[in-house]
Amino acid sequence: MRNGKRSVVLIGFMGTGKSSVGRRLAQMTRSPRVDIDQMIATTFGMSITKIFARLGEEQFRKEERIVLEQLDAAEPSIIVTGGGVILRPENVTRLRELGTIVCLTANLPTLLERLGRGSHRPLLRGENRREVVERLLREREPAYREAADLIVDTSGLSHDQVAQSIQDSLALCD
Ligand code: S3P
Fold first, then answer.
1. Is the overall model pTM greater than 0.90, yes or no?
2. C-alpha of residue 2 to centroid of ligand 1, in Å
3. Comparing 26 with 1, which gets the higher pLDDT?
4. What's the mean pLDDT in 131-143?
5. Of 127 and 8, more confident
6. Pocket mutation for ligand 1, best pick of 14, 20, 62, 129 (most atoms within 8 Å of C-beta)
7. In what order do the strands lie in the sheet containing 7-12?
8. What angle do CA 168, 5, 30 make, to 5 degrees?
9. 170 CB contacts (<8 Å, ≥6 apart)?
10. Close Cβ partners of 58 (under 8 Å, ≥ 6 residues apart)
11. Residue 35 burial (CB < 10 Å; 0-12/13-18/19+)?
12. Cβ < 6 Å from ligand 1: which residues?
């Protein structure tokens, strides 16, 4: 699959490596990197955890939508999204306008290991992390698959290997 110098949009569940792979891919392709969560945190002047705690998830989702609309489709970039971006079908439509959608996945043990115990992720703060991860994965899996132009299983791979595999699959060049 070729990408034709459009943006590359990374989607996928928490812990699949979107941020780190996005950073590597941006370096490898000498493209700007846009991180939606970072933009939202900057807008509100607080961390994602604080936004969830003080303003609520709905407010976060509204801002996520606004930020997506504001991105410039003419500027090919590496766009890193938060794991819940696919919850709104209109977000997926927008992401398709912006570029080629690459979904990162990982098997459950890998995800649980990467997500660790203490987390800055507000959705994983409760008691039974494994149960929450399993439930969210079940709920979201179809939407990730439906949205993706390309799916890359990152289990057992380094961020470099994942970025290289995306670059090869999309024949990205700078
Ligand atoms: C979320 C994932 C997080 C962040 C927020 C909500 C989700 O991003 O956007 O905590 O709903 O899965 P990461 O996927 O980068 O952890």
1. yes
2. 28
3. 26
4. 97
5. 8
6. 14
7. 33-35, 78-80, 7-12, 99-105, 150-153
8. 70
9. 1, 2, 3, 8, 100, 102, 150
10. none
11. buried
12. 14, 18-19, 37, 48, 82-84, 121-123
